[in-house]
Structures are given as structure tokens and as C-alpha cells.
Amino acid sequence: MLIENLASLKDDMVAFIAGNGLRRVSAYVSEDVPSVVFEEDNVDSWKDFVEHAKASGAAFLTMSEVVLEKTDVEILVQQLREQSFPDPDSHEIAEAQYLVEHVGKTGYLQLGFAHQGVMFLYETETEWYDRFQQILEAVGELGRIVVDEDDED
User: Fold this and answer.
1) pTM for this one?
2) What is the tens place of the pLDDT at every residue in 8-38?
3) Which residue stretches of the chain are H helix?
């Protein structure tokens, strides 16, 4: 089953976390922090994750979400147009424009708790959000390419 919007899942998570006597802190745990990512083995793996947090003695979980904004899509399309010279009709531009259909939807959720100096993380995302991230990374990589005009053949 393909989920296009994780908002209802977020609501379920909020209720389940509170039902387990844990608090939530709105925070994103970046890749720079030593962490272990919890692997999903079923649709309700996030519940197991919350129960592990409780069993570890965690008083709270971090929670972060990403809701796609119209300006995110507009900026991405603009960057692609600038970098797609001389092909203004590139496939990536069409894909980025298609993302407008997902504006206002939650595409990414992250739960986390600290235990013995390590952050344990649960992450889930929609397919469209994963593609959005791939396009963003491609734009970033293209932006880092530097042409050295002093190079001689």
C-alpha cells in the first residue's frame, strides 16, 4: 500500500507515544550525531521503536516531520532550470514540477531517543519525498562541479 501523506501516521505516533507515558520534543537529529537507524520489518515497526524507547528508560522522544511547501518546489524547479542549460525541458524539471501535487503533505517522519550516548532513530518517508531528496542531491552535486578554465588539454 502506497502512502502519499504521513500526516495520519504522525497523529497515530503522537497518541501512541503519549499513551506510553513518554513526552515528545520537536527536534531533528542530523547525520552528524552518532546514531543507529531502526530497521523496519513491518508496517507497525514504529510502535516497537517507541516501546524500546520506553524500555530503555527514555523520558522523551524527538520527533521531526517534513511537510512539502510550494516554495520548496519552486526553488528546486528554478535551480534545475539554471543547471539544465541547454535542455530546459529535462526529465528532472518535469519530475520536480510534478511534486506540486504533494504540496502540504507530510513526506518524512523521524523519531529518536538517546541511550548511552547514541541516538536511536526511526525514519519513514513517502516515495515522492524520496524522489524529492534525490533530485535535491543531484542539484547540489551539479552545483559543486567547478570547471577549471586554466586546464590545458
Assistant:
1) 0.84
2) 999 999 999 999 999 999 999 999 999 999 9
3) 7-19, 45-55, 70-83, 91-98, 127-144
